[in-house]
Amino acid sequence: MAPWLGLVVLLGSWSLGPWGAEACTCSPSHPQDAFCNSDIVIRAKVVAKKLVKEGPFGTMIYTVKQMKMYRGFTKMPHVQYIHTEASESLCGLKLEVNKYQYLLTGRVYDGKMYTGLCNFVERWDQLTLSQRKGLNYRYHLGCNCKIKSCYYLPCFVTSKNECLWTDMLSNFGYPGYQSKHYACIRQKGGYCSWYRGWAPPDKSIINATDP
Asked: Do the beta carbons of residue 185 and residue 203 sit within 8 Å?
């Protein structure tokens, strides 16, 4: 297993989409956390792929055309190649060539970008408007906030820098409404709270546990 993979699983960045494999287990993560914990966040189209003999099952190298970078300007200002495990059982990511634009997140090791099933990866046309706005300017405003996952009731915030993430309580599971439409942003009073974009971030308007 490549050295980056264990780190990715530990971070628990969450991949949307139909790429799951039974042997690859990832902890759910809100897209904002995935953004803040990634070295690189880009929108790109895959234009080619190549399997190379690295690791136990090989490494898939995708050649991409970068459309826009949202995070990672100092790490790697332009991404041309993305590396991932060739096997889905090792969290390798399968992407379509010359078909879709993707939102891709990943880590940088030895000057190369790596990604996988435990990273936040989604077709660009499947992202909500709120998620696109989050990538452009909202998510980075909340990188000092903590999104606290709630799996079972009761759940509470325990510090002013926390937002309670309750998508997992829904019958629909995740990705849920908070993942698709909310960012956790620090407000004027120093508290972090969910922000929907309907009004300027203000603690007097938005409750710290909203929604």
From this structure: no
- For residue 137, the 8-state DSSP code is I
The residue length of the chain stands at 211
Question: Can you say which residues are annotated as belonging to the binding site?
Answer: 24
* Binding-site residue ranges for Zn(2+): 24
CB proximity list for 34: less than 8 A, separation 6 or greater:
13, 14, 105, 119, 120
Same domain as 164, residue 151? yes
Side chain identity, residue 21: A
In eight-state DSSP terms, residue 181 is H
Q: How many other C-beta atoms are found inside a 10 Å radius of the C-beta of residue 70?
A: 20
Entry pTM: 0.79
Give residues with Cβ within 8 angstroms of 8, minimum separation 6: 91, 107, 114, 115, 116, 118, 119
In the DSSP assignment, the letter for residue 136 is I
Number of domains in the chain: 2
Q: What is the mean pLDDT of residues 60-78?
A: 95
The answer as to whether 52 is a domain residue is yes
Residue 105 shares a structural domain with residue 133: no
pLDDT tens for each residue of 37-46: 999 999 999 9
